[in-house]
Amino acid sequence: MKYSIIGFPRIGIHRELKFETEKYFRNEITQIQYLEFVREQRALQWNKQLEHHVSFIPSNDYSLYDGMLDTTVMLNAIEKRYLDLNVDDLKTYFSMARGYQGKEGDVKAHTMKKWFNTNYHYMVPELEDDTCIKLRNLDFLQGYKQAKSIGIETKPVIIGPYTFLDLAKVNGTKDKKDYVTDLKKAYIDIIEQCHQAGVAWLQIDEPSLVKDMDQNDVALFVDFYQEILKYKGTTKVLLQTYFGDVRDCYHEICGLNFDGVGLDFVEGKQTYDLVKQTPLPKDKILFAGLINGKNIWKANYQDILRQLKQLSENQNVILNTSCSLLHVPYTIENETQMDSNIKKHFSFAYEKLKEMDEICQLFEDEHYQENELYIQNQNLFKESVLRTNQQVQDALKALKEDDFIRQVPRSQRRLVQKEKLNLPLLPTTTIGSFPQTKEVKQTRFKYKKGKISYDDYCHEMQRHIKECIELQEKIGLDVLVHGEFERNDMVEYFGQQLQGYVFTENGWVQSYGTRGLKPPIIFSDIKRVKPMTVDVIKYAQSLSKKEVKGMLTGPVTILNWSFPRVDISLKEMMYQIALAIKEEVLDLQAAGIHIIQIDEAALREKLPLRKADWHHDYLDFAIKAFRLCHSKVNPETQIHTHMCYSEFEDIIKEIDDMDADVITFEAARSKLTILDELKKNDFETEVGPGVYDIHSPRIPSVTEIEAALKVMLEKISVESLWVNPDCGLKTRGENETVASLINMITAAQNLRKQLNKN
Questions:
Q1: pTM (2 decimals)?
Q2: What is the C-alpha separation between 506 and 329, in angstroms, rounded?
């Protein structure tokens, strides 16, 4: 038995890629130094996989920013606005990722969206009428050739034409079908180049095959590969899918000339039945995704060996991860402070390699049940990972339908809140966080390491909050925030104060580009043991006569941005967290806070990829979990929520059903098509579509923001429109933040004057 992995983490075991990339952005290292660092890191990763006997080591999965962006550049789908900068290839690449503002020009970055049902963000390809799709260069084989030069055979990994076209955005008069012929030719050139380079296996990722597909979609997929696979020569082609099953096109896959097919047996509800009922043809190898690539719990060898043996009865099988290991941290060995009794339950990327190696050994052992590796693994599963808090269980059982419903309708609450808050038209605010300066981070670090006392730490945090409130009043924001300087992360911060969570020191996972997160781990029942934000928000409110928002993270996002338990349902975990947030909301209200924001940035993240599963499997209880948080507040308390970088158009009604009073969301990189859906669905919630992109260092002009607001006012009533950035500002620099906010406020005030005159 051999094993393969779909992809590997790339930010570095100590986030080396992040830090070197940021040095390059700051011109602290040259391009030559940067690219040499990348070569060294790639070699380290391949050698680690070789050490663990990976049979199919991926290359071309080590992206400098994003794999979809790599594909866009590989296919020459670079918009004219970036080419017109006339900068070198690497700067062009990063200008597409981050935007660019300099003497060469001023361009916005590509739109970012969530990668299927994960917290990873990809850069959306943009196809224009004059886009000439072709194989631009052979960069996709750089990694393969480097590995070959040090004696390591790898399988290059690329995103396939069906998924590329499915996720691309068309800007112009053409339809997506107009790019099909050129895409076929480009992928034929790719396969021919692999053949000429002596590539043994090419992995083509087609995750869009696990989404709903109609007859036209299936026909397009078949059309692509009937043509492309004619030219593979000696290179074998692995069709790789993940994040679900391929029920709509499985039989077509069986009939195409693939040499291997990678299927997800973890999230694919129907994968096992599909393969058992109709095994792959004998000339194809099944790459069975039985090792969970998205969660960090140890694999149960008994379950996986049973499935492997059953699958092997009728076809050739290779053990595989369910998806790329990009979505888990590097190694549990970095966690020196974690309790060993807890630590032994977890498996990060390096440990998953070891697990797969051991499973392959056990598969070949007729008496594996007597093998010490198997016995040790099974002993782990004899220990219950379910840690029950009876008080929490009782609270869940006591929930009634009234606990999910605000008693005063939104239309009536709106009148009460207008009178109470007395805000101007087009009220300006921010999403929550302000720049986390080096000084702020050092203060948190010193306290964490015991170098300053708790009192000194609180004094420093209050100083930062005071300066932030003074800044916001000076520049003229209408609704203020405290800046969130005490928070390392919007989920980790709350998890650290909730009973039932486990935390890592170095469990970093890439979110996008150089941005990493440390997802906390839900290990047992969740309970709030004390107020989490009340003292800080009360202090901030005491500094201003303007309203200061209480800032919380909602239960859906806290769960979706954590590694969940595997022994209870998502619904149960979500309701447990919602009960904890509800207690905090009511305490903030009691402390005199009139506006409370419960962020649900990740609402869509666990949404099943097939629409038939949306409500029963997720939305029904996710929306109720959010409502549980705020159902008991007074009508004059205004509840805000925030969502970022997801596609919302097809769940507009469900978002309205969250029964918040105001929602802010990402919009600056989009074409504001969501506004049409809001209007069409008679959206009741007040809205603040982001007017500028905080993921880019460029400063938007007053004219640019005014133009965006005028477009918004064509679709949203002036009484319902808020003015705000796309997202929190913690990753931005102070100077660019202040300049951008001043321009945003000026634009709002200019329009306000025009509206008042009319």
A1: 0.88
A2: 8
